[in-house]
Amino acid sequence: MNTFKLEVLTPRREFYSGDVEAVTIVLEDGEMTLLKDHEPMLAALEIGEMRIKTADGWKNAFASQGFVEVRPDETLIFVQTCEWPEDIDEARAEETRQRAAEAMRQKLSIIEYKESQAALARSMMRLRVKKHLN
After folding, report:
1. Per DSSP, what are the bridge partners of residue 23?
2. Is the pTM of this model over 0.70?
């Protein structure tokens, strides 16, 4: 059997737990697909689309920043937020995108600009993941 245990955790809940054939995540320098018997590693995750492959096929989810730890017996993904496409509120994501884009046009401090930039990236990725469902 070419599966491995995957756990995806957020501060609020266990998002996913089960055996998978593969998981594709977004790292700073691009996407990476993890398969069974991947070498142990620890890496930072970027905002992006996480794809999980089970015997039933691929399932996509929105994932915010976090990190992944690949162990010999399991892979752990820790992220601030993770959502299935059907759970994404498209209207709220679009409203957040517009607010963040407008905030970035204002004269902001560096911290406010970075916060707005992160909010914009999260909302745009949520909209992208939601559109893949439709």
Report:
1. 34, 52
2. yes
